[in-house]
Design a protein that fits this description.
Layout: H1 14-20, E1 38-41, H2 47-61, E2 66-70, H3 75-78, E3 92-98, H4 105-113, H5 115-119, H6 122-132, E4 141-147, E5 152-156, E6 170-178, E7 182-184, E8 186-191, E9 194-200, E10 204-212, E11 216-218, E12 222-223, E13 233-241
Length: 252
């Protein structure tokens, strides 16, 4: 009890295994197209495995999450001196645990239940590489988030110009695990400079893969009427830099 698969391929459905094996022409290499920055995939994770993973997170990780809140600063209105000069920083409200603090309780629990192994497993990275169409640096970062009613992430682009390697782009892969008390939540993202694209993110076992940076936001989670206390959407996040290209050997 309280154990989850330590290899990502143990979670996969037959459809997910076809992607991992490079046999799905529509999905494999989808993000290699420079015009495409996002893909949402359902049916890649087996339902029973996804539900088991969600239950373990509820039982073991929920008590060790911390609230992350960044509300709209009031000065974004009252410090304005000209009409239409709005400038909004990233806003967010969600429960989370960064899995990088080796001395933290959340990290210890995540390691105990196998979550660290899962999010750094060779098959997890290989699946992301199959969709990205290029090699990734296996030394990625992991994070757990949990959205409750009203939780959201405001418009942001996830650009990191101060990080030399991330500044030119990187890849995020998210595994979403929503329970039946969630009515809806959406990811909205920009295409051709406008927030025109919207996809639901409340499936149990859905995958979303991002070729960052680009503009996007997550709408407030809405619960089924009368079930606000139970409504939660878990999000397991892996972040990977692109592998360094090997230098060509100089001609003799």
């Amino acid at each position: 009890m309280f154990q989850i698969a330590r290899e990502f391929d143990d979670l996969l459905s037959p459809a997910g295994r076809r992607v991992l094996a490079g046999r799905d022409a529509q999905v494999c290499g989808a993000l290699a197209d420079p015009r495409r920055r996002f893909i949402a995939l359902d049916g890649m994770v087996a339902h029973r495995q996804a539900e088991n993973l969600r239950r373990v997170l509820e039982e073991k990780m929920l008590p060790h999450l911390t609230r992350m809140e960044a509300p709209i600063p009031p000065e974004t209105i009252w410090d304005m001196r000209q009409d239409y000069e709005e400038w909004l920083p990233k806003t967010v409200r969600v429960m989370t645990a960064y899995l990088e603090n080796r001395r933290g309780k959340a990290m210890a629990i995540a390691r105990e239940i196998g979550l660290i192994d899962l999010l750094s497993s060779a098959s997890f990275i290989a699946f992301a590489e199959a969709v990205a169409g290029r090699k990734l640096d296996p030394k990625g970062g992991q994070q757990v988030l949990c959205y409750g009613p009203g939780d959201y992430a405001g418009p942001h682009n996830d650009h990191h110009p101060e990080n030399k390697r991330a500044a030119q782009g990187y890849l995020d892969i998210h595994l979403s695990l929503a329970n039946r008390a969630v009515q809806h939540q959406y990811l909205v993202y920009a295409k051709a400079g406008h927030f025109t694209e919207i996809v639901p993110v409340t499936s149990l076992g859905g995958l979303t893969i991002y070729r960052l940076p680009f503009w996007h936001y997550t709408t407030p989670l809405t619960a089924v009427p009368g079930k606000a206390a139970q409504a939660r959407r878990w999000l397991l996040l892996g972040t990977f830099l692109y592998a360094k290209e090997k230098a060509h050997k100089a001609a003799a």
